[in-house]
Specification:
heterodimer; A: nine-stranded antiparallel beta sheet; B: 120 residues; mainly alpha; 1 helix; 34% helix; 8% strand
């Protein structure tokens, strides 16, 4: 599904393109409707590159090849994967390992070893015993040699950072090549470049694309990301599980939060912080505040906690104004 | 009409020719200055280019293969990532110790949202 529509309910005319990929909602909004098709093409190019490098669900992707070929020594990979693994390791470093790219095997043991659309209805099996993942400290990148080193058989999951990285990269490419303001949203991981005066209005909801978002904020630059357990959850042999893995147990994180939304200098940093917050649990508000990251955390009972200057909730005007 | 030339007096130059010579000399001086300025500008650009190519995020100024560097949000599109590791192999100092805070804190939005952010 894909469509390009001009949005005319603002002072600045916007063009928007929406589609679905990786079982997520993909959106690009530009301040010049004439370039929306070109912007969508640039975004597609970025997504193709990320998918070829980082998809856990394609046998021909580089992370799958890395798992097959790794014997514990360096494996030659593309510059894209070198960068993506470097980004993932940086995310692990700044979160003290709460966001760890070596959770791929743990996700497979939970049944999430194929596109989520094929998992959503539940999978057979049983909850595995708790065991820590191999750990980001066992992964190394050598950019000059173009290699990545992982323990033999390790499947990397770059989902926490690769999507956001693609959003940052696509937004930068669209703004610079097409000379317009742009917002790229990949499943709720947003990147903004050259926003119009007042920024882009973004609804904040439990589920990406919800036309009845309870609140909205204006984003003028950088990134915004929401992580949560309300969408990617399924039954594993009857036991409810979700996709945010605690690296210390290899099991779904026991988090007090339903969703966490964070604004940061980039989409990668926003997603890194929002994912880490789910794993950090009760410690998340202080962790976010210490780093000056404005955030909105929603507990399972709906209670909202805001930190670092995140504004009070306001009901969005004209809900559904983008034709969702 | 020019005045007659007297014997023993210094040679007199036709005022038109003198003006032409003066003009040509000025042009020549201007050309020299332009050439010098152009050369200086090119040299400055070259030096700045070499400096910036080593200073940009994602470019290593070190020959070491174990330098951890600026990857992630600050890495510009298409630039190679520096060497980094999880810590057991070739670990080095990190470029950032925390996710970067936004330049602008989100503000309440009173317009219709163009997209929504939620878990996906």
């Amino acid at each position: 599904m894909s469509r390009a529509t001009p949005v005319t309910d603002r002072a600045v005319r916007l063009g928007a393109h929406r589609t679905t990929r990786w079982s997520t909602r993909i959106e690009v909004v530009v301040t010049d409707p004439a370039v929306v098709v070109a912007a969508a093409r640039l975004l597609d190019d970025e997504l193709d590159r990320v998918e070829a490098a980082a998809s856990r669900f394609r046998d021909d992707s580089e992370v799958c090849r890395l798992r097959r070929e790794s014997d514990g020594g360096p494996v030659a990979v593309s510059p894209d994967l070198v960068t993506l693994v470097g980004v993932a390791l940086q995310a692990a470093r700044v979160t003290g390992g709460a966001v760890d790219p070596t959770v791929g095997g743990a996700l497979c043991r939970l049944g999430y070893d194929r596109d989520f659309a094929a998992v959503a209805d539940g999978v057979a099996g049983a909850l595995p015993p708790a065991a820590p993942v191999p750990g980001w400290g066992s992964v190394a990148v050598d950019a000059e040699a173009g290699t990545v080193t992982v323990p033999a058989g390790t499947l990397l999951d770059l989902g926490a950072t690769a999507k956001a990285w693609a959003a940052d990269r696509a937004a930068a490419a669209i703004a610079s090549r097409l000379g317009c303001g742009v917002l790229v949203s990949l499943g709720g991981d947003l990147a903004v470049e050259s926003a119009p005066a007042g920024g882009f209005a973004v609804g904040v909801a439990d589920i990406c694309g919800d036309p009845d978002a309870p609140t909205a904020v204006s984003i003028a630059s950088g990134g915004l990301a929401t992580s949560g357990i309300g969408n990617r959850h399924w039954l594993l042999g009857g036991a409810p599980v979700h996709h945010v893995v605690d690296p210390s147990t290899g099991l779904p994180a026991a988090t007090p939060w339903r969703t966490v939304t964070v604004a940061a200098g980039s989409s990668v940093d926003a997603n890194t912080a929002s994912t880490a917050s789910l794993v950090l649990g009760d410690a998340a508000p202080a962790w976010l505040a210490d780093r000056g990251l404005p955030a909105r955390l929603v507990a399972h009972d709906g209670a909202v906690v805001t930190v670092a200057g995140w504004p009070e909730d306001v009901a969005p005007a004209g809900r559904g104004g983008t034709g969702r | 009409m020019s005045a007659p030339r007297r014997a023993g007096s210094p040679p007199r130059i036709d005022p038109t020719r003198a003006a032409r010579l003066q003009r040509d000399a000025g042009i020549e001086r201007g050309r020299s200055i332009s050439k010098g300025a152009t050369f200086a500008s090119l040299a400055a650009v070259a030096v700045a280019g070499v400096y910036l190519s080593q200073a940009l995020p994602g470019r290593s100024t070190s020959t070491s293969s174990s330098t951890s560097g600026s990857v992630g949000a600050a890495t510009p599109a298409g630039s190679p990532a520096p060497v980094s590791s999880g810590g057991s192999v070739g670990s080095g100092s990190s470029a950032a110790s925390a996710p970067s805070a936004p330049v602008n804190t989100p503000a309440p939005a009173y317009q219709a949202p163009v997209v929504s952010s939620g878990s996906s």
